[in-house]
Structure formats: C-alpha cells, structure tokens
Amino acid sequence: MAAIAQTSLIDLFVARATEAAAKVERISRSSAEIRAAIARATDGARSLVVADGELLPAEIFNTARSLPGVIAKPNDDQLATADAGVTEAFAGIARSGSICIAMGPPLRATTSLLMPLHVALLPADRIVERPRDLFEPKRIGAEAMRRNLIIVTGPSATADMGPLVRGVHGPHRLHILVLE
Amino acid sequence: MAAPPTPESQYAAPRAVANKRDKQNLLSAIRMALGIESAAVRRNTQTFNRNRYREAAALADYDALKDEARAIKERSITNLPELLNTLERAVRSRGGHFYLASTAADACRYILGVCQSHSAKLVVKGKSITSEEIRLNHVLQGAGIEVAESDLAEFILQVADEQPSHNVAPAMHYSTERISGLFKRKFSTDEPLETGEELTKFARGRLRQKFLNADVGFTGANLIAADTGTIMLVESEGNIRMSSLLPPVHISLAGVEKVIPSQSEMGVFLELLPLSFNGKLTSYTSFIRPPLDDPPFALAGRPRKKREFHLVLIDNGRMKMRQDPVLQESLYCIRCSACMNSCANFQTVGGHAFGGETYCGGIGGAWEAATGALENARFSDLCTGCSRCVTNCPVRIDIPWLNEVLRDRLNRASAGSPLSSLLGAVSAVRGDDRRASAQKIFFANYHWYAKWGTRTHGLSNALMRNGLARSVMQSLLGVDIRRELPAFPARTLVRAARELPPPAAAGTSAKAVLFADVYTNYGLPERGIAALKVLRSLGADVVVSDAFPEGRAALSQGMIATARRQARRTADRLGPYLDQGRDVIVIEPSALAMFRRDYNHLLVGASRYDLLRTRSFEPVEYVARIIAKSGRPPRDIFDVSRSPVGPRLFYHSHCQQKTLGCAAPTENLLREIGFDVATSSVECCGMAGSFGYKREYYEMSMAVGGDLYTQVQAADQPDAGGPRALIASGTSCTEQLHAGLSRPVMHPIELLAAILKL
Q1: Which of A122, B336, B428, B495 is the most exposed place for a label (fewest CB within 10 A)?
Q2: pTM score
Q3: Inter-chain touch A157–B297, beta carbons under 8 Å
Q4: What is the residue range of A89's domain?
C-alpha cells in the first residue's frame, strides 16, 4: 500500500478522532496560539494542571502555565480534584483517531487520567497511519518500544449500565490540539 | 397482548446453575436466561456483532492480520516454556516479581501473601476473568481484605453475586432497568438510580474513593511480551489505568497462554483484538512495563510508598491443555468474544446458560474442561456446529471441532444404557460411540431410520403423526412432540432420478455427480430432481450417486469414530466419480461443509480430502459457474415472470453455507434474473439439524428462530413492498421457517427449475 501523505493523515486523524467523540482543533505551533486554545478548551475549569512535554519546546508549557487556575506544583489531593489536565501526546494514530500518552515525565500519567477534561497537544508530524505502525521499527516504533504507553481513543466510556455513557473513571471529555 | 413479566424469583439464580455438570442445571439456566436475560443479551451481542462485521469489511488486510495473529500464537504456545524463562528475566531485570502458579489455589495463596505483606485493607481490581477462574475475591475477602471491583460490569456482578455472562462485557445480560432494581435493593442512597447516566455516576463516585485509597491495584493482562515484560491491557472505562497507576503495589494475573515472544508483535493484536470485539479501538490500551517510574499516589496523611509489581502467571491446567492435540488450539484464544457474538444460540441465552462457572460461549467448553473437569463442559452441547464463529475468530480456532471432540469425550465418559447399546448395535454405530445417550444415537443415525421410514413411508408417516408414537419417541429418544417431523417421500431422490427420461444428448458444459445426501434423498428429493433439471438444461453431464451418510449427523452428536468411518466410506464411494473428472454437487449445505471443512479432521492425510474440498459445490453456486463460463446473461436462461411464487423473495441462507462463502452466488443470481430479494441477517435459524428437535432445547430453538421470523415479517411489510415468498437453502432452515411461519418454503434450485426458459 502506498504511504499516505502526512496532510491526508492529519485529515483522517481529525475525522476519526471526532467520530470517537474527541474534540479536535488544528492550530499552529505558536505558544500564544496554543495558550489561547487551551484557555478556550478549559473555559469553566477552575483548576488545571499542565504537565511538562518532551517533544515540544518548554516555552509552550511555560506559556500555558501563565493561564489563570493553573496549579504549578500540585500535590496528589489537588490532582484528585482538579478540573482539567494538559499533556503532550507522544503520537497520533490516523485510522483510529487515537493519541498516545507516553508515561514517565512528572504528572504526565495522572494529568491525562484523573481530571474530567484532558487537553492533549499533538505534534502533527507524529501522526502514523494505523495502530500497528506504533510498533513497527520505524521512526516512532523504536521510541515506542522503550516507553510505557497509553493509547487513548476518545473519552472514557462504558455501556455496562445499558446505554453508552461517556465519562467513567477517566476523562469525560478529550480535547486534542493538533499542532501543525 | 404479551403475558405479564414473570417474577425473577421463580427462576434459578445464575450462580446456583453455573456449573452444568448436572444437566438439570443446564436446563434451569436456559429457562432462566430465556425468562430474564435474553432481551439484553440479544441487544448487546448483536450490536457487537454488527459493529465487528462493519469494521472488518473496511479493513483491506483483515485476513492477512488473522494469519499473522494465528502464526504468532502458534509459535508462542510451541515455545511457551522458553518464553516463560525469557519473561521471568525481563520482569526481574526491571525490579518486578515473577510468580508461576501451578494451580488456582497456589495463585490465590501467593496474591494473598503479597497483600498481607503490605497489610493491605483494600484491593482495587480492574476487570480480570482469570481472577474469576481462581475465585480470588473469595480468598481475599475471607482474609478480611476488602475487594473493590472497579470495572462497572464486574461491579454489577459483585453486587449481584453472579458469574460473568460474556468474556469482554461480563454483565451484558443486565438491562438498565434490572441494574436500577438491583442497586436500589442493595444500596441505600439519595442519589437517583434510574438511567444509565445516573447508574454510572453513582458507581463512579463510589469507586473513585476506592482508587484513591487502595493499598493494592490488581489487573489482568490481555497479552504479555516475553522480551520486554510489557503487558497489554485493553479497556474503555479507565479502571485498569487507575488500578495500575495509583496504588503502590500492582499485581497482574494472567494465564500462561497470554505470553507472546515480543512487544513488536503486539501491534497485530492492538488492531485485531478490539476489532473482533466491537469493531473499533476501545478508549484505552495500555502497554506498560511495571513497576512504573511514576510515583504512586498518596493522598494527604498517607505515606508515599515505593512501587512494587508482581506478575502472577497461572498454569491451572493450561500446560496439560498444551499437550492435548485438540484442546491445544483453545490456548490461541485472545478472548475477543467474536465467537460468542456471532453465535445465534449465544445471542439468545448468553453465557449464564451457554457457559460454565467462568468461561462461556463456544470457546468456553474447552476452557472449563481444561481448568476444571471434563463434565464442566457439558454446556457446550449448546454449540450446534453451525460454524459461524469459525470465520470470525481472529486466530482461526475451529471451535465447532473443539466442541465435537468434547462431546465425544463426554459420550465416552458416560455409562451408556441398554437402549443406547441396542440402538447402537442395530444401526451399526462404532463400538465406544454406543455409550452416547439414546437420543444422540438416534439423531446420529438419521440415515438408518430415514431409509426404513421411506421404504415403509405410508406406515412411518402415519406413525410420525400418531400422538402415542410421538409420546414414546419423546420419552425414550427425547424427540420433542411439538415438532412436526418431516414426511418421508414415496420415492427417494435416487429412485426418482432413475425414472427420469435420459437426457437427449450427453452434456459437455460440465461433468458432475449429484451426491444423494440423506437429507435430500429421504426428505426433500424434489430439490435433487430440480438440480438435475437445471444442470442438464445448461448442458451439464450429471449423474446421481447412491445415498449414504457422509457423517454430519454422527459428528454433531460427538460420535467421531462413527463419523470418521462414514467419511472414509464417502470418500471411497465418491472417489471413482472424482477420477472420472466429475465435480460433486451437494444440496444440503451441512453435508457440503463436511466435504469442504470437517473432513479436514476426519480424513487426516487422505489425498481424497483435497479433491473433495476443492471440487464440491453448492448447486446454485455451480449453476452460476456454468452460466458465467458460458457468457450467457442469466435472463436468457431464466424468466422471472414464470415464477410460481412471484418476483418478491425473502432468502435465508444456511449458516454453514455462509461460512463456506457460497451464499452470495444464490443472492446474486436471483437478483440478476430480476427477483427482488430481501435477505436474512441472522447467523443461524436455530434448528441446526437435530438441535431444535431435542426435547430439552425446543423452546430455545424457537426463541433463536424468533429473530428470523421477525426479519421475515419486517420484509413483508407494505413499506418493504408487501409479502415475499420464502426461499431457503438448508433442510433445517426450511423446517424452522415452516414451523414458525406456517408458510411454504422453496429451495432456490427449485425456483430456478420452475423458471427455466425451455
């Protein structure tokens, strides 16, 4: 199969992530624009936590931390009750509309799990075509094998009580900012 | 007007009838499931089933992925002892603990020891069916440790004290209304408990506190990579992420069969596993190598402890299973649930009836037998061998074969009876197969009774309609009195074919033998005559074989030695026709499936099998091939306006025909000729050979048929164009459609014979 161009991968990612009930926005990598997008996404959140990144410049996260309501060094009680968490995404998967969270850096795992709203910053060049590509020994494959990874497809959900309900133990809402 | 709902208390509690060693428990469980659980089970399994079909159809390399997954699992099980060594090193090198438990009790003892070494008061659990297998909760709770099931389905089961009814959605037998009733009985709260949202919110709130305060987090594992020690965990709710991230101690329990060589091979399963369940990736798939680097969670006032990880793998019968030439295959299972969701019987009763204490569905019998006792697999009698699971299994396990072998072993383990011995001797059943129940021997020997019934058809047909005779049959042979038995014809297919005028000229378009399968020969010979008429008019040189049993009836009763002997004889007797260059046409799809699929097991190493497999055809499939080769448009050969039943049809293809991939030629040809064809989407009609005739399964069979009847009635509605004529390719399906709708049913080849342009 011919490789799909990165631009169509982004389109496919946006479509599929939206189908999976995530909210997706495409924005530029400017710190100011990202900060504004996080502000819009977390509108109404009284407290939020921003975890450090590894792929994106530190400046992006520092700028985001100037938003009102950000708890700079949260303790676990604050993590358990915060309204929103902001993390970097390690990769995206176009066909399934998933993002991957690489655990390890401080707050990354809890910030993507404990809060009702999770805002993820996904570098557009980190989108692969299909789920198994994550483990192919290609660009991301080699890194992926060394990390503890969570593949996230939409908000947490259950149908155990009958109808599909979004928002169980994990985030009720997932907001992905695709950074081009 | 429907009858008022029956109070639940008049039915057996699921836990009380979980073990079906005693057949009475199986019957009570079926009654309970049909009475209480069926509606929710149907809705959920059929939704999963539709979603899987939709996504699988969109995946271009679905078959290649299945081959890859199968190959990985085969290699894993072959090399399992070495993989376990590799895995142990990988886990220990990261500071984790590794324990290989030989039995359920051993695993429970180890896990309890870990919990006690941390003075644990609260264990929070993510979903783990394997922990149900070892009854872990009882052991922990017995030692005074609180166990919080945090998967909402397991939470429901814990509140209700029930076993899983499905291996991925273990509480899918519960409707919102029933959960609401359950929670109101069990909890005193001011929170509203009516809607799915409210019930989820209530459970979430309670469990959030458990996650934050747990001393130990417990999870299962979907797969484990030996090279890195990475465990793969699939879920939607976040309970597994919570259980593995927040508490300082993480225990992961899995069967040894979950180990595969390397993490790079997990990508295949990352795609196939969720696809095979509900079509799409679930919300979360974790790939983690605990102990995690992230600090464990500690609310104010609690000490922040060091992380600790224990990987507990259990044998509990699996290594013995690995040595079993047949059951070994079930170790490839990745517990995706595609087999149960694509099973018409399972869709109707779920895993509380079609299941044991832990494992359920078609694959469940092998698991219950291997991790418990052979007799615990008695519920696998509900596998009719329809084979719909076979093409839906992502690792290509031949589940009907597993169940036929289990049935064979159960037959052999039973004491037999004087009536069984007598029937067995009279009908020349193979030695040990005579220990099967009289009912099974009777149904396995349909050909024998049918031959005598046809020879004496006046008398035998009168007997079949005689109440007293039917009462005797019901009590001695378990043939349900409510079922109309098909009448024996005055002339068999073989005799009727001999009396046909010889074809004007020897055909040249194709050379074939029409196999006089016993169902057509002694039941519906007009189908065979119609096939001859159509094929000969297309210029084919077709002869008719003698009638002899090909083994389906014996195989379906688990009488494998008898089936094998019949298969060998069939291959020998059809051999000369194959040597003449003739193809084999088989009208009854379950007989055709023997040639194409099941002889793989019965004719191991026989060269005839490959010939039979590749050169046997369903009649309309064969007609379509001849027409395609001739290049003539079907409308030049057939004229829809001659149809004795009009141009509007409802076509129901046979379950095994679907699995063989030869339902489409009939649908396509009928449409090309100009018929307006609606089709059923049920997996199986529910009759399934002998199943629907058996006294103990009659109600269940009719309930399964209910979905088909509903589809026919929907297609008959004015907005769907008004009534349609019923067309079906299987003998059983014909009986079942007739039983439920009291309408005539035609085989497509009969319809084609009637509309030939002469």
Answers
A1: B428
A2: 0.96
A3: no
A4: 6-179
